[in-house]
Amino acid sequence: MSDTNGLQIPNLFYGVQQHPEALAALRALVAAAGSPNDPNGPWFIADNLITYGHARGFLSDPRFVAAVRSEQPSHDELSLIWRTHTLCWAAESSLGVPGDLVECGSYQGYSMAVVLRYLAGLPSRQMFLYDLFDPKGGGGEGQRLPAHADLFDRVRARFQLFDNVTVTRGKVPAILDEIAPQRIAFLHLNTKDREATRGALDALFARVSEGGIIVFHDYGWTGYRDQKDAADAFMRQQALSVLELPTGQGLVVKR
Q1: What is the DSSP letter of 195?
Q2: Average pLDDT for the chain
Q3: Of 223, 236, 230, whose CA–CA distance to 189 is shortest?
């Protein structure tokens, strides 16, 4: 996973297994690259993202590396390293405006656990995490995975050392009527479908402070185009637009 100089990232790609020619080409590129994803080398090949010659300084940033390692990421989680760094940057950048941090669609809690470590526990802010934790596959619920077994208890245990974190089980957006902060500085939407994405924005956007940051986890992925369409339509109504990032995320700064 790592060496003394930074993080070594596994070459995991998603959705290519059903395309043999693309998979063969990817494997050939990884072999030709020699040591792809060496933090001191020129290549980054992971999470459906291929770059050459980019500095990728976050792979060797001591604070970020320590935050990631402290959460003992799986290979899947580690492959999302560029997305994770984006969340850390966005969360830190939002601290100049009033409000708390919110994530809708926390799954196993990895991303926000790294953010908390990166920001030294956020002693002056609250963090609110929402998820069904046991989806049945209905509208706005997402797909049930093996990791969902006992997930709510495991996520609560993950954050038990942080008294400023509230982990809430419920369906977004309905659960937001029961518990949500009045002011939000950072909002991460990992909601997976149109209904939940639009519902979360309807419930929470007015609470996001001017200068606050919103990150959409799956905005730029073709498999989640409905979510992108919902986000775009909502933001047009606010005279805003979403910046599509190479990571597949979307980014908005409220103004």
Answers
A1: H
A2: 92
A3: 230
Determine phi and psi for 99, rounding to 5 degrees: 125, 170
Read off the tokens for 26. 């990817």
Tell me the pTM.
Answer: 0.93
How do beta strands 6-7 and 43-46 pair?
unpaired
- Distance in angstroms (rounded) separating the CA atoms of residues 54 and 24: 24
- For CA atoms 52, 68, 116, 71, give the dihedral sign: positive
Q: Are 242 and 251 in contact (CB under 8 A)?
A: yes
Domains of the chain, by residue range, sit at 2-59, 72-253
Neighbours of 237 (CB within 10 A): 10
Residue entry with tokens 């990992």: 190
Q: In 10 A of CB 75, how many CB atoms? A: 12
Higher pLDDT, 170 or 4: 170
CA distances from 210 to 67, 127, 254 (A): 28, 18, 5
Please give the single-letter amino acid code of residue 10.
P
- What homologous superfamily does CATH list for 72-253? Vaccinia Virus protein VP39 (3.40.50.150)
Place of tokens 């409000």: 99
Residue 1 scores a pLDDT above 50: no
Q: Provide, rounded to the nearest whole percent, the portion of the chain with pLDDT above 70.
A: 93
What does the DSSP 8-state code read for residue 135?
-
